[in-house]
Amino acid sequence: MSSVNYDELMQPVIEFLGCSTPQAWLDEAVNNLDVLMQDHANCEKKAASTAMNLMFRYSFFTDLQVKLAQLVREEMLHYEQVLELMNKRGQEWKGLSAGRYAGGLRKEIRTYEPEALIDVMIIGAFVEARSCERFYALAPVVDDELGRYYRYLLKSESRHFEDYLALALDVAKTAKLKDPEETIQQRIEHIRAVEKNLILTPDDTFRFHSGVPSR
User: Fold this and answer.
1) Nearest of 107, 100, 122 to residue 205 by alpha carbon
2) Distances in whole angstroms, Cα of residue 182 to Cα of each of 93, 126, 133, 179
3) Does domain 22-92+99-210 have CATH number 1.20.1260.10?
4) Quick check: pTM over 0.85?
5) How confident is the model at residue 1 (pLDDT cuts 50, 70, 90)?
6) How far apart are CA 71 and CA 152, in angstroms?
7) H or E stretch including 202?
8) 3-class DSSP assignment, residue 138
9) 3-state secondary structure of 119
């Protein structure tokens, strides 16, 4: 992994997102690594569950099946790895309430198909890209063991965001939407603004995808 150019790897991710993680969130994360790791585990499990649900709901999209199956395997592997790290550190599993991030993005999903599926894919791309950007920002400021693990995750997480965008475009083309690439770009720009607002505004609850700590 030492030969990986992380700055180069991250360039498409950073260009895709509307903002970088604020320093105030990073400061809060360093002081709450137990909550960070627990919520990270929850995020990996939820990501696998989302991909699995999409496989069942949209079984008629063949290309979708293969890529989502790969995604499920990778997310569950990451979930297992985070649990192992927590166990190694003597950290017990605790229930955590969900933050506002995912719900705030889901509000933007349109209620008709195939636009609903396209929105789910684009939102999936933003969640994966933000996760990737946060691992990149966290790696230099956490302990060496955790920093190495976050760098290890960068390659797969950066690919996940691109996979979701490719799937969104595939769906738009399969559904024969007018100007599919322009349609996708318009939704990306809309959801980018929503995601940026969730990251940069005060947030009462610290989580892996939370906004600026309000206290």
Assistant:
1) 100
2) 44, 18, 26, 5
3) yes
4) yes
5) very low
6) 16
7) strand 202-203
8) helix
9) helix
Determine the Cα–Cα distance for residues 183 and 160; give it in Å rounded to an integer: 21
Of the chain, the end-to-end C-alpha distance in Å amounts to: 38
- The domain locations on the chain are 22-92+99-210
Nearest Cα to 123, choosing from 135, 148, 106, 98? 106
Lookup: tokens for 17: 């997102």
Is the omega angle on the peptide bond into residue 12 within 30 degrees of 0, that is, cis? no
Backbone angles phi, psi at 213, to 5 degrees: -55, 130
Tokens of 127: 């969640």
pLDDT one-digit tens code per residue, 86-130: 999 999 888 889 899 999 999 999 999 999 999 999 999 999 999
- The residue type of 17 is L
